[in-house]
């Protein structure tokens, strides 16, 4: 196959490209330039997409003896990922930009362009497994290394996209991948992993949002509406947050308070005890499916965070909304997050959480 290897400049994508070469594919490396003004160097493990990353990707491609190109997708990344991120926070929701990037950039923009150029598949360094049936069907499964599993952030992919994808690292652990990179003489073997949000390299999400949304003062209240303090903008808060509340009135029981709700229209942030964060009912919009659309009610597992644990649930698709009732309460679930559904290790699909309900109100 002709394979387009997305090379970020990190160890995972370099080894994934190397394995694609070993498998006999005709591999071309491509680095995605996602920033209009990239930094020269990374700040430790924060961010990515710096000039240093582009150079590291090119060096890895040279080591593998494959062609290498840089694709400028900065305009589309700004529109589809960064602007969406800001708009979601402005609306009181908590987005996951990694899912959005996978959906709109790596497996939509890149795959579309790759197929148009005659490539058969896109190869990435994600930790997930693909199982291909004799009938041509493709299933997305969790990686062997549970600590590195990235199937959650791939839950937005469609069956068509998965059919044209390769995830060579799925059967391996991170330790094995680093050892392989060193054995291959790849200079990125010991390079730190990227963490946090790639387009906020300094990690100051509040400052990033302030620069784009400005100061929007409002009230911090408890569940019965009692004023407890003030804030500079609802975009500083997400459901489940504990730090940075700046409350002038301590709780009567002395226990910490958490953000229970964010309402940008009124500028109100509601706080309360941790137990008030528990929910057992979720509804999600914009469902996507990795295979056939499930019919009726079914039993499965759901996960609401990239590194969260799965819980048992009953699920049902009602028109264009995925309705989920979990077997045990989930804490700190915010609208805007993704709920990803599994059948054991297989990813069934995902949806964007639009509403939640506590155990006391779940029918």
Automatic annotation (TrEMBL):
Taxonomically, the superkingdom here is Bacteria
The record's GO CC annotations read: cytoplasm
Extract the signal peptide range: none
Q: Where in the cell is it found?
A: Cytoplasm
Q: Site: Interaction with tRNA. Where?
A: 126, 337
InterPro entries in the cross-refs: MnmA-like, MnmA-like_C, MnmA-like_central, MnmA-like_central_sf, Rossmann-like_a/b/a_fold
Every copy of the tRNA-specific 2-thiouridylase MnmA-like C-terminal domain together lies at 280-353
tRNA-specific 2-thiouridylase MnmA-like central domain boundaries: 208-272
Q: What are the BP-aspect GO terms?
A: methylation; tRNA wobble position uridine thiolation
Q: Cite the SUPFAM superfamilies for this sequence.
A: Adenine nucleotide alpha hydrolases-like
Q: Where is the active site?
A: 101, 198
Q: Which reaction does it catalyse?
A: S-sulfanyl-L-cysteinyl-[protein] + uridine(34) in tRNA + AH2 + ATP = 2-thiouridine(34) in tRNA + L-cysteinyl-[protein] + A + AMP + diphosphate + H(+)
Q: Its Enzyme Commission number?
A: 2.8.1.13
Recorded hits in PANTHER family, A to Z, give: MITOCHONDRIAL TRNA-SPECIFIC 2-THIOURIDYLASE 1, TRNA 5-METHYLAMINOMETHYL-2-THIOURIDYLATE -METHYLTRANSFERASE
Q: What does this protein do?
A: Catalyzes the 2-thiolation of uridine at the wobble position (U34) of tRNA, leading to the formation of s(2)U34.
The identity of this protein, by name, is: tRNA-specific 2-thiouridylase MnmA
């Amino acid at each position: 196959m002709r394979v387009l290897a997305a090379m970020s400049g990190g160890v995972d994508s370099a080894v994934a490209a190397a394995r694609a070469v070993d498998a006999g594919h005709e591999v071309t490396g491509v680095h995605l330039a996602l920033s209009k003004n990239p930094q020269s160097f990374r700040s430790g493990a924060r961010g990515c997409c710096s000039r240093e990353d582009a150079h590291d990707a090119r060096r890895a491609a040279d080591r593998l003896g494959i062609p290498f190109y840089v694709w400028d997708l900065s305009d589309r990344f700004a529109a589809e990922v960064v602007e969406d991120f800001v708009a979601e926070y402005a609306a009181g929701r908590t987005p996951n930009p990694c899912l959005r990037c996978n959906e709109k950039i790596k497996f939509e923009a890149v795959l579309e362009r790759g197929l148009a150029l005659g490539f058969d598949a896109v190869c990435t360094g994600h930790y997930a497994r693909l199982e291909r049936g004799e009938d041509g069907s493709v299933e997305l499964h969790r990686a062997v290394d549970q600590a590195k599993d990235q199937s959650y952030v791939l839950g937005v992919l469609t069956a068509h996209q998965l059919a044209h994808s390769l995830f060579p690292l799925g059967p391996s652990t991170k330790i094995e991948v680093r050892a392989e990179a060193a054995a291959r003489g790849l200079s990125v073997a010991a390079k730190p992993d990227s963490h946090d949000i790639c387009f906020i390299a300094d990690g100051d999400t509040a400052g990033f949002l302030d620069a784009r949304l400005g100061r929007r003062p409002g009230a911090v209240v408890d569940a019965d509406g009692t004023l407890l303090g003030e804030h500079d903008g609802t975009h500083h808060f997400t459901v489940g947050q504990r730090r940075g509340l700046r409350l002038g009135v301590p709780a009567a029981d002395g226990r910490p308070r958490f953000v229970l709700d964010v309402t940008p229209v009124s500028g109100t942030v509601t706080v309360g005890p941790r137990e008030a964060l528990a929910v057992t009912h979720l509804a999600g919009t914009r469902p996507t499916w990795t295979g056939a659309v499930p019919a009726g009610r079914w039993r499965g597992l759901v996960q609401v965070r990239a590194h969260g644990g799965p819980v048992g649930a009953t699920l049902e698709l009602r028109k264009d909304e995925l309705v989920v009732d979990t077997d045990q309460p989930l804490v700190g679930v915010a609208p805007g997050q993704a709920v990803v559904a599994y059948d054991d290790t297989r990813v069934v699909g995902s949806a964007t959480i639009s509403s939640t309900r506590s155990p006391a109100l779940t029918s």
